[in-house]
Amino acid sequence: MHPRLAAEWPDVLEVYPDLVYRDGPDRIEVGVDLDRQLYNADRTTVGVLVPAGYPATGPDGFLVPASLQMNGGLPASDATSIGMPGWLLVSFHMFDTSGRPTWRATSDPKKGDNLIGYLASIEHFLAKSCS
Amino acid sequence: MRRAPAEGGAFLAVEPSHGRLLLRSTRVFRDEELEPDAFGLILRDQAKVALLAELKGAGHGVIDVHTHPGSDRRVDFSALDQAELPAYARYVQLKLGGKAFGALVLGRHSYAGTFFDKSQTRTLRIHAVGERADIPPWVSAREEYERGPSPDLRVHDRQLRALGPAGQARLIDTCVGIVGLGGTGSVVVQQLAHLGVRSYVLVDDDVVEESNLNRLATATRADARKMRRKDEVAERLIRRLAQQPMIVRTGTLRTRESLRHLAGADLIIGCVDNDGARLILAELAAAHLIPYLDIGVSVQADARGLQMGGRTAFHVPGGPCLACADELDFGEAAEDLESESLRKIRLSRGYAEDRRIEAALMPLNTTVAGLAVTEAVCFITGVRRVVRFQRYDYSGSRLVPIYVERDHDCPVCMPAFAMGDRQQLDRYAL
What we know:
The structure holds 2 protein chains of 2 kinds. Chain A is built from 2 helices and 6 strands; from the N terminus they run H-E-E-E-E-E-E-H. By secondary structure, chain A is an alpha+beta fold. Chain A has a single domain, classed as Roll (Ubiquitin Conjugating Enzyme), CATH 3.10.110. The longest helix of chain A has 13 residues, at 3-15. Chain A starts with a helix and ends with a helix. Chain B is an alpha/beta fold. In chain B, the strands form 3 sheets. Chain B has an 8-stranded mixed sheet, sandwiched between helices. In chain B, a hairpin with a 2-residue loop joins strand 1 (9-17) and strand 2 (20-28). The two termini of chain B are 46 Å apart.
């Protein structure tokens, strides 16, 4: 496991007790509750690809099972080409107004951007119908 | 040395890392942990067992250090040391579950070391990191005894008059990893070969194209016609200039082989045009305590006119890195490092752009590469301290040194510092 991911692991596990790590490609997976009025399920697995340059380079997008449907359609692409058949890559990017990524990690996993913050943003995004 | 002129000792906690042992921590024995025997001071058994248990718990190997404060110019293990070390090595390795064991004896002006690797012993050599002016003379003195081939006086006479025989010998002994063998990298290769550097790790898998010939110091039209690789033409130039060259060509940066060979270099010079490679090199340099000198050039022609310039950034272990200096664009690095398939998805959704072809001018490349090689020579020979960060404004014809402090929040060099193999840089290999 990536040394930074190992350093963050206990904190992420405390917030997301069903956290799992998988490789090929390197990613973490957690369960996230959904609003049944917006989705065809009340809970889904969310996968976050951990880039090689993490934490200097942050995650981009997230994965959900291809069976997940949202009213109006998910802004997502088939993830088969990135080694994740049966999954969708949801278009979720954290940019500032000038189009620059907002991800700012620091040497201390508890300061700056980290996986807990990223997962929290995904939950918020899903709760707002991916807008 | 700290206890001199009294005899003393210490345990150095070490970890194997790409053929080297990285020093993790130092524990100097306290007075109450030592007791006299017939030949001097020895570590009490109780203290020895406790310290070895600590080392085992941390998963570290150990270098046992003792001093010979009354030594002459060149120190060595005593006859008693030599007789007792093999049995002591077996005992310590048994206590540490087979971890590395070595011994160092420090004299007033030099040191001697030995490393026990399974059934054989090898010479243990201290590789000090940082600027030469900061390296204690007793560490440098050992180089004098282990020097490789002598400089070729017919070729390097004029240079010896500037750098001295010790400086020239250090150039000969230094292994330089050069990543990127294009516009700046080819000039770096050319200059280092002229300087007498013999040992290279060349990292680039590109082939020579006609559009490269305006700036590739190592290539000819025939190389472009035959689509020769840039590392191949770089090797050809080195072999024509250097005495007994040792060259390793590893292809693209993102392979285990390239990362492994670079981790064994004495100096890395980055001549790349993307921040993804810079991020990898900055992290590798921090993890393995390797000095990393990065070259950047930029030519922009737009409505405001022609803007040209460059910079050199020298990450000396323990000092500020490229990211501390805000010379790494993490957004660009993320794009450089992402897989092609992920990039295609982002392109299709309008979140990525096709790469632009950048302008390039050989005189600018040569100037900035020359500045970088000048700093490399300063670092290797110690003729002066290095200028760690500097900008070259081609349009205004100015060279501006930049003062940069280490950023203790830096997500690149701080977490990776001295981590060695534990940094798992193989994750960058494709």
